[in-house]
Amino acid sequence: MTSGLSGQFRRSWRWLLTIAMTLLVTSPVTMTATAQLSAPLLPAEERIPVIVLDPGRGGTDHGAKGPTGLLEKELTLQVATDTGRLIEGLLGWRVHLTRADDTSVPLETRAAFANELGADLFISIHAGGALAPVRRDFQVFFFDEWQGSAPPPLDQSVDSERFDQVGMQPGGGGAPPKPVPWDRAQVEFVEMSQTFARLLYRNLRAQVGDEGRGVFGLPILPLRWVRMPAVLLDLGSLSDPQFADRLRDEAYVQRVALGIAQAVNDYQALRR
């Protein structure tokens, strides 16, 4: 993969940047977040690319909490919503959120939702914390089962009705979908997931001006179950008061959203 954007995409992003903030303010939210819905598959030449944005936590699961009260579940939903507006408005992708409000959604349901949609990309958004107020910049993860021990197998006696849905492979061209085991869903997408993780890391560094911690491969369960290129974005640690204040700044959050949208644009260019 060559480093840096081509001249063509540098020029295209000049005008995208001029309207991005307007879209964030004026565009209505049309994204869906119903985990039970399935989208019909269209012929490849007519199909609009689909991305699933997964705001971490929700409901009684608050996640990390900043010293001034900022909750991870609120931050991830704001970032996902702003990012979705940009991706729909600038790139024309169809955007779905795994949750659009303060709702608790099980991890396996989030994966099932993305797989049933036959999405092209999956981005799970989180923010961490620590016992000490130590600064930690953003980092990006992709699934890599060779970096650690394999997670325990899913109890199929509990989730037998959902087993085929979560591991569903889009059939295309009217062919029936092929069931794929939970623990093998991400295997054939690891390379593209890593490629997108690096694009996301590069674009976020450019937009927010932070160095970032890097790109890492780990056997993360929600990514293991997703049958498409998938990454997990950790926005940083809420425990540091100065960083938590930055995350409360709408302009900073919008730059994060724009960095994610730019990464999606770069990924789309690579796939053409």
Question: Topology, please?
Answer:
Blueprint: H1 7-26, E1 50-55, H2 72-91, E2 94-97, H3 107-117, E3 121-128, E4 139-143, H4 156-166, E5 168-169, E6 178-179, H5 190-208, E7 214-218, H6 221-224, E8 230-237, H7 241-248, H8 250-271
Parallel strand pairs: 1-2, 1-3, 3-8, 4-7
Antiparallel strand pairs: 4-8, 5-6
Short key terms for the protein model shown above:
single chain, 272 residues, alpha/beta, Aminopeptidase, two-stranded antiparallel ribbon, 42% helix
Briefly summarize what is shown.
This protein has 272 residues and is of the alpha/beta class. 42% of the residues lie in helices and 15% in strands. The relative contact order is 0.20.
Write up what this structure looks like.
This protein is an alpha/beta fold and 272 residues long. The protein is 42% helix and 15% strand. The chain is built from eight helices and eight strands; from the N terminus they run αβαβαββαββαβαβαα. It has helices at 7-26, 72-91, 107-117, 156-166, 190-208, 221-224, 241-248, 250-271, and strands at 50-55, 94-97, 121-128, 139-143, 168-169, 178-179, 214-218, 230-237. Strands 2-1-3-8-4-7 form a six-stranded mixed sheet, with helices on both faces. β1, α2 (72-91) and β2 (94-97) form a beta-alpha-beta unit. α2 packs across α8. The longest helix has 22 residues, at 250-271.
